Amino acid sequence: MSVDNLTKAYPAHMAVDRLTMSVPQGSVFGFLGPNGAGKTTTVRMMLGFARPTSGSVSVLGHNVGSSSDTDLARLRRRIGFLPDVPGFYPWMSARDVLRFAASLVDVKGTTLTKRTESLLELAALTDVRQRVGGYSRGMKQRLGIAQALIGAPDLLVLDEPTSALDPIGRKAVLDMLAALRGRTSVFFSTHILSDVERICDEVAILDKGRLVTQGSVDELKGQYGGSSRYALDVTCDTARLRDVLQAEPWVGRMVDTASGVELTVNDLDLARRRVPAIVAGLCVGLVRFEPIETSLEDVFVSLVQRDA
Amino acid sequence: MTGFGPFLVKELREISATWKLFVLPLMLLLCAVSSPLLALATPYLVSTVANLPLKLPDPTVADAYAQWAKNLGQLPLLVVIVSFSSAVNGERASGTAAMALSKGLTPAAFVVAKVAAAFVLVAVPTALATVVMAITTRAVFGDAPWGTLLRATAAWLVLALWCVTAVVLLSTVLDSTSATAGLAIAAWVVLAVVSSWGPAARWSPAGLVGAPSSLAMGLDTVWLWPMLTAAVTAAMLVVGSVLALRRREL
Lengths: 308, 250
Prior knowledge:
heterodimer, A: 308 residues, alpha/beta, Rossmann fold, Alpha-Beta Plaits, 2 domains, 11 helices, 39% helix, B: 250 residues, 12 helices, 0% strand, elongated
């Protein structure tokens, strides 16, 4: 899937602004952004539910904007889609929903029976006799993921798939998405960074409708997080330690912690030689001096704040 | 029309699973049972309530049929309009339209299945109610000529189905269900007013507003052109709905 210079402008604001990105086939792709960044609008344009102001979307070899109704229908049957707020007919049961979805994508016979049962199990809805109208948000989201998978799609597009799930439900869904790697391309938008960090091969970060960056999680951490942040913990006298460190030219930004400081190091070689000497000079015990691993959250926050 | 079959099945199941199954059929059955009885009781009611020393003529089968046609043109038609005013915008608002269309259902299949299911919901109870009407009329008056009853009811049925297609178009174009119902009722009133103009009554669907009553009373009525123009414009309204849905963002 790829989008090229995709723009969606509303009279009052620009929802998506010249977005260009590509999703490698078979990958698990995280589409990150704060609320209102334009993630859902992008997803709607990918599915052909919203018309771009300019630019194009290509999904599974089809240009979405220029496809006829029949071609678009054929394409959509190869895509499993979960909207941010999944809508179901309230009078249906979970089994009815899956059977209806299956009938639209032409899944029949024993495949239908097997797939329905396994997806109901995945969604933890096998024994639920209630109509969908009485479901909680989490139950609806689990059912939404199940219906997206009913056609064994080539591409799975999930808009905030884990936002209403409890930790156990979230783990089950993430494990299942990770298991699809290599067989189905998974594109999911979210603002839950730990989900992305856990399973995504590649990430795109969107802010105010614009692509801030795209790359693998490790690439982004390396590129934007660096490895210059260190935790220095000592046994006592942190105030004196801080005063001494402030005078050192290789120390950048410094933040107090409970048992020491978190500091940005400009010259790692010099720091490695000077820190033990400083600590020894203060006659305090060295507890730890180690790099702080950059999280995706650090990258995300720094990029979005920089953009602001 | 990809997905038409499964979506039509869903629509029919929805009718049987919700209040729609009962409201219109019960309304039509009520009309079928009450029309001959009301026709029978009308002379007595008029003379007692109005306290007039008039001797009104004995009621006949034509009175029962006229009452049936008059009743059909009131509440049942309003029920038809209200029942389908959320046909498309209701599904758009709840997200079910996006869910179904994301599975490869085309806008044409979506709209045509909705209209087809609505036709079933209107036509089947109308047919049953017509049979009940004939039985009740025969029981009350000893006779119930089928030809007149069928012609009058068929004219109403075509009008009701035409209203369905108009309401579906409004429901596709407008976001609000209540605005759809309100505008459809207003359009219905306009159609009723226009029907009093001769050329409109002869050549357009407006002629179907008065046709059921005229046919029920055995009057010479122009119905062919109103029926034909209703069929053609209904098809145009369905095409309009499909085009409107294609243009709508979900």
